[in-house]
């Protein structure tokens, strides 16, 4: 029962062993720490970089162009915003050269709120990331998906942004959602692959034998089938929406919850089929609500499914304010919460045209 | 000339401000001042250093007890940060100093006269937190009336902003300077050289004290593994900027060197790059445990020993002081615990400013300067 | 009959003389050039900066915090993308300090396509800019609006982004749209305020006496009243949409064209009134179409006006590709063109539910 | 060892690579090599310089005649860019040199063997433009088979990418190096120091030739008004990087200095920062008129005079050559004018790559290296 951060670490290990990963690097990514969330402990290609995000993204691009297979970490996505020009260049490398080059790299970075991260450890990036052409954007909500999406990200010949919902990094998989090959006992897994406290210089991890289980980029996952309303969400909000949906069962409201998993290119087929069936749409994410990626989903829905809609499609997202405040009240008022989501689900499902 | 209380030294100390880092070869060589300071000044300095240390220890305790989500601060930097704060020309507007600080600068604020309870308030994210209203982490102050620009979490950005306040000061005349400070690892960001380029433009040199507090770490990463520079301060040389690397663990030396640099900047209106070697006594932050690090030099301990040896303070007096401040801070933290949390509905407050507060202050200080026949 | 770039220059001059502007600066902004588009010729506070956008935005913030009134130029918006973190900090300065500070600065920058600018002189910024809280965003489509919006931007106590549609910079005002006080003869104006070719060291401009004519931030302008369809647009697309609308008159299709002028905070009142009246909405802009600001307008429209809509609201925007190609065919295929806009207007207006 | 054709010099020239910029005080001092090159080499160098100049002049003409929207290029830099191109170890993959070039690098490409018609194609944005398929401006090449990374308009970003290709080369072994070049004004961006920091990490020094072509202008802005550095190359010193400022208007000197630097980098696997003083002979770009600037030194003219004096070339021969290339380029531009423009529908091509082209090349060169018992 791996946590998401362990799943990422195992995927990176498989990447190193079998998929050609040459460099896992970034601030505090190498020994002794192995990442501020431990995502890179014990990896043989992990190394520490200078404190310089432009250098990290730039070097990742250079490594990629030289045929290496880098996974670069931005320690928190909150610190990616001085590199948007470089991200755009990476996304445009194939296109600008008319296919002469490709630029195969992975940027992984923790996103979102939920750990009392205050203004600069709570940012979302889905809005801006999906606005940068040439990137594939994935965002897992379970350890298993994190594992499989990371393998796909590594294998992809394009730049892939791996957004890790930081509040889920230490969450364990649900039963039945194990990664094949991981030990049944979570304490055993921890002993095998978590670095010990104190001196780690003699430590080497013992990796369980996990397979090349790719979760394809571009495939959504229907977490919960439902009749009355389609909820499209991803990352940390998947579990929150699912719980809200379950709350409503007793009221006879049957909500379908779709975990997008890949934000770009996204699984429109699955979304459309669901929306046409339920005739109602709610999009939920944490990013600030103006020029939000959920608005794209809604735009496309009204453009293509207008006449099936029985209620106005709706977005629940972060408040359009400059940050997420530290105090609980502030964070809760800034990011969609379960109660508010359930209320909106109910309203939309019961809405009478 | 200005509303500032600063009186320039009778002669410019510019010549005295040699590049003191040149003498050694490979090892990090630091200067040490010889002149002793007046006993009252030393006592005051010690008082502030002790209070600053105890404040950080209280903050750490609060976080560990669940009275706060995150701690970051400056225990180990008091011997540099306190003299810095004492030497600041405090006030609002271009005729006073602007401070673009690091998240380890609490001792500087204390030395400037900040009330320690405000740091506790920010730790507990209560509505009365005067720095951010419960929005920001501990160690992220903002004090407009003293020109303390909001400290932000992104590393190094303050170095890109510092030329702006200094430009305004140079144009205004007077002796106000801009002080910018940050850590060693952060100098790898482009903002640090931006500050070097923008403060040394020919004919437009800017009055900035560019400080790097070098604790030789960036979180878990040893500086020596990432930095090919022998001394970070060497990076200023190509720009003709006066550079110095000083022992920031010795408060007397810090006081002398900062004063010397400031005198130069206040009168010559040109930048100085000062690297201060300091300790990181409780690790990076609460995320790394915030436990006392035995291996690092403790400037407070060393200074107290020195003061005892010189007969300026007794151990008994120090112990008494420590007990007194400890109790005061504990009491204050209990009071803060009872203060109200901000309301959720306040998240929409201050997204936009209604009036131009900073512009009013500027107009006021211009008027005062003019009133003085300038 | 000033061009837009002359109008901006005159506004900056008024800013210097009467509104406290202290610094107009950026790359090639000062003498001898006075800006790559001549927007800053002859201004007494204009100065050249190092080639460093982070330094430009950072210094503008510092100047603002010290009570100055800076107008900073990013030479082309295509080069703003390494400063997004600083823009976010400026936008959050008041909020993060809980109102202790404000940060009054103007960033002006040319945007958009239409001058054969290829990949890196054709970018739009409306999508990302509106996603950064704490900024006001304006974008004129006429010289007069450029003049009045610049004055308002200078006066505002907040950071204001002035997006100048570069293809319009040399376009003249329509008759009746003069700036009060400008000479009737455009050659005379040019003689007064355009720097001469060759040596300019002895030259000083003669500024016409133009008034403090503020165009309020947040007020849209209805360019063309219409019955059948509301078109919301801004910048270069205003004239293109208006021409397309006029094309349709002969077919009996009557299109309302609204120039948003301020993208944030935008004039929802005017938009809503119009949409409720016409019951149809088309949003047109040049930015890439995914996570596009127009999608926000559409989202809000379906949330608040769903039941008045007689056809699915639609977005026409830039193709979601990494850049705008140099060859005409490529540019035309990437950005909405008059013919395509007219076609969509017709379809929407004649759409039968 | 590798598939590279490079043969290391019998002895490392590392010791010979002094910091040659130290001798003077205030003025920009540049070195000048004394050893003469073989006549055949000089003739070949002249041929390439002349062809490069005429190519740029043809491009300028095309733009002025409406056969292109924008011109930017490198007339005036031939005396540096041609020797650079001649000394490149050309090929694909880590065992050859990677080039992160500036938009003024056409002469380097010509010297590497590029067909000038391809530059004309990019100017005319025809579908057959091999660098970008009619998408990008003139002067923005991309040639994967020679490790020429796509030149992008944003200034200086190539300096942040260069460490990546060099890291791969250092790890691979062999003698491949990374060459990165850009202008003087652009060094104010953070990417330039990023390159200095990342190439000089202790124990991880990288084989990069970091070039700054200093023409003392950024569009309309004189370098001296914005840069406090006496020499831009001084900025490398703090990092222990070998630094040199050279006369880039003298092709013999350029050849010697580049060779010396490259030999050091190829064998020592450490960076060199080289500032080359060059001219900007037709102003910034077509936006600034693209007219010949009388005031700047013309390296081609000087070199031709020298070759005549030395009896290596005659004026008649030069004139003949000039006439021949001029005609060839004119003919080529006429042919290009007839080539097809790209279709609008192609804008969606290559947004995403279908296969990992760069990865395949890497695998292949690894295999070859292994095959050679390495
Ligand atoms: C731009 C940015 N990148 C990364 C971080 C995460 N981070 C916080 S502190 C820190 C290390 C800072 O080291 P240094 O600059 O030496 O300052 P110190 O903490 O040692 O005083 C890092 C990487 C950040 N806050 N901002
Ligand atoms: C990041 C960025 N900012 C601004 C520009 C606009 N611009 C193009 S060239 C140039 C001047 C470059 O000067 P320098 O670096 O000295 O190179 P040179 O053109 O002189 O070779 C500027 C400001 C740009 N292309 N990229
Ligand atoms: Mg440090
Ligand atoms: Mg230049």
CATH superfamily of the largest domain in chain A: Thiamin diphosphate (ThDP)-binding fold, Pyr/PP domains
Number of domains of chain B: 1
Rounded to an integer in angstroms, the radius of gyration calculated over CA atoms of chain B is: 20 Å
**N-to-C CA distance of chain A:** 46 Å
Q: How would you sum up the major sheet of chain A? A: 7 strands, mixed
Rounded mean pLDDT of chain A is 97
The fold-level CATH name of chain B is Rossmann fold
The helix count of chain B comes to: 11
Identify low-pLDDT runs of chain A.
none
CATH architecture of chain B: 3-Layer(aba) Sandwich
Strand order of the largest sheet of chain A: 2-1-3-4-6-5-10
Task: Name some characteristics of this structure.
heterotetramer, A: 353 residues, alpha/beta, Rossmann fold, 7-stranded mixed β-sheet, 5-stranded mixed β-sheet, 11 helices, 12 strands, 16% strand, globular, B: 374 residues, 5-stranded parallel β-sheet, two-stranded antiparallel ribbon, 39% helix, binds thiamine diphosphate, binds magnesium ion
Give structural notes.
The complex is a heterotetramer, with two copies of chain A (353 residues) and two copies of chain B (374 residues). Chain A is α/β, with parallel strands linked by helices and 353 residues long. Chain A has two domains: 4-193, Thiamin diphosphate (ThDP)-binding fold, Pyr/PP domains (Rossmann fold); 221-350, Rossmann fold (3-Layer(aba) Sandwich), CATH 3.40.50.920. Chain A is 35% helix and 16% strand. Chain A is built from eleven helices and twelve strands. In chain A, strands 2-1-3-4-6-5-10 form a seven-stranded mixed β-sheet, sandwiched between helices. In chain A, strand 3, helix 3 and strand 4 form a beta-alpha-beta unit. In chain A, helix 1 packs parallel to helix 5. The mean pLDDT of chain A is 97. With 374 residues, chain B is of the alpha/beta class. Chain B has a single domain (13-341), classed as Thiamin diphosphate (ThDP)-binding fold, Pyr/PP domains (Rossmann fold), CATH 3.40.50. Helix content of chain B is 39%, strand content 9%. Chain B contains eleven helices and seven strands. In chain B, the strands form two sheets. A five-stranded parallel β-sheet of chain B has the order 1-2-3-7-6, sandwiched between helices. A two-stranded antiparallel ribbon of chain B has the order 4-5. In chain B, helix 1 (39-64) crosses helix 10 and helix 2 runs parallel beside helix 8. Chain B is globular, with a radius of gyration of 20 Å. Chain B starts with 38 loop residues before the first helix and ends with a helix. Chains A and D meet through helix 2 and helix 3 of A and helix 5, helix 6 and helix 11 of D. One thiamine diphosphate sits between chains B (104, 153-155, 182-186, 215, 217-219, 284) and A (27, 51, 53, 75, 79).
């Amino acid at each position: 029962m791996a946590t998401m951060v362990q799943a990422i670490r195992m995927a990176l290990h498989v990447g190193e062993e079998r998929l050609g990963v040459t460099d896992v690097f970034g601030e505090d990514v190498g020994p002794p720490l192995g990442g501020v969330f431990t995502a890179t402990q014990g990896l043989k290609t992990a190394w520490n970089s200078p404190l310089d995000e432009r250098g990290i993204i730039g070097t990742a691009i250079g490594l990629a162009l030289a045929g290496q297979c880098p996974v670069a970490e931005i320690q928190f996505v909150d610190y990616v915003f001085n590199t948007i020009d470089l991200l755009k260049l990476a996304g445009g490398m194939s296109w600008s050269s008319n296919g002469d080059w490709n630029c195969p790299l992975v940027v992984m970075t923790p996103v979102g709120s939920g750990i009392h991260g205050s203004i600069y450890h709570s940012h979302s990036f889905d809005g801006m990331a999906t606005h940068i052409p040439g990137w594939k954007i994935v965002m897992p909500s379970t350890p298993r998906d994190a594992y499989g999406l990371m393998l796909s990200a590594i294998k992809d010949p394009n730049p892939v942004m791996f957004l890790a919902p930081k509040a889920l990094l230490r969450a364990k998989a649900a039963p039945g959602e194990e990664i094949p090959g991981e030990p049944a006992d979570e304490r055993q897994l921890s002993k095998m692959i978590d670095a010990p406290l104190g001196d780690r210089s003699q430590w080497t991890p013992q990796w369980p034998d996990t397979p090349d289980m790719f979760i394809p980029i571009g495939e959504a996952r229907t977490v919960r089938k439902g009749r009355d309303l389609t909820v499209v969400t991803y990352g940390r909000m998947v579990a929150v929406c699912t719980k809200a949906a379950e709350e409503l069962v007793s009221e006879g409201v049957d909500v379908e919850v779709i975990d997008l998993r890949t934000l770009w290119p996204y699984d429109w087929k699955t979304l459309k089929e669901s929306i046409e069936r339920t005739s109602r749409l709610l999009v939920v994410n944490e990013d600030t609500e103006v020029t939000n990626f959920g608005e794209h989903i809604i735009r496309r829905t009204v453009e293509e499914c207008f006449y099936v809609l029985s209620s106005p499609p709706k977005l629940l997202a972060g408040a359009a304010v400059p940050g997420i405040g530290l105090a609980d009240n502030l964070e809760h008022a800034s990011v969609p919460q379960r109660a508010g989501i359930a209320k909106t689900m109910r309203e939309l499902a019961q809405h009478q045209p | 000339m200005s509303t500032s209380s600063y009186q320039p030294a009778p002669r410019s100390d510019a010549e005295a401000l040699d590049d003191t880092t040149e003498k050694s070869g490979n090892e990090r060589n630091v200067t040490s001042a010889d002149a002793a300071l007046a006993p009252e000044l030393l006592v005051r300095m010690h008082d502030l250093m002790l209070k600053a240390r105890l404040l950080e220890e209280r903050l750490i305790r609060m976080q560990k007890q669940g009275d706060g989500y995150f701690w970051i601060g400056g225990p180990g930097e008091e011997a540099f940060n306190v003299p810095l704060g004492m030497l600041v020309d405090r006030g609002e507007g271009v005729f006073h100093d602007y401070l673009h600080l690091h998240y380890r600068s609490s001792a500087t604020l204390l030395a400037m006269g900040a009330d320690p309870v405000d740091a506790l308030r920010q730790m507990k994210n209560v509505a009365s937190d005067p720095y951010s209203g419960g929005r920001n982490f501990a160690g992220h102050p903002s004090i407009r009336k003293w020109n303390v620009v909001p400290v932000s979490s992104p590393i190094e950005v303050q170095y890109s902003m510092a030329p702006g306040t200094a430009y305004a000061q140079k144009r205004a005349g007077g002796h106000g300077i801009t002080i910018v400070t940050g850590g060693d690892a952060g100098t790898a960001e482009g903002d640090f050289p931006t500050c070097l380029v923008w403060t040394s433009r020919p004919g437009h040199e800017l009055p900035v004290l560019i400080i790097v507090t070098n604790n030789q770490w960036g979180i878990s990463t040893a500086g020596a593994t990432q930095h090919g520079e022998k001394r970070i301060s060497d990076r200023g040389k190509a720009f003709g900027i006066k550079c110095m690397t000083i022992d920031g663990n010795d408060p007397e030396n810090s006081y002398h060197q900062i004063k010397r640099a400031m005198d130069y900047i206040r009168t010559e209106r040109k930048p100085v790059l000062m690297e201060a070697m300091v300790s990181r006594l409780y690790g990076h932050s609460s995320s790394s445990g915030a436990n006392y690090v035995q291996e690092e030099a403790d400037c407070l301990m060393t200074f107290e020993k020195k003061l005892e040896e010189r007969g300026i303070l007794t151990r008994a007096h120090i112990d008494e002081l420590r007990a007194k401040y400890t109790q005061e801070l504990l009491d204050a933290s209990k009071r803060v615990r009872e203060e109200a949390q901000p309301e959720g509905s306040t998240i929409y407050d201050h997204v936009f400013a209604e009036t131009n507060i900073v512009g009013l202050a500027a107009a006021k200080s211009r008027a005062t300067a003019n009133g003085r026949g300038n």
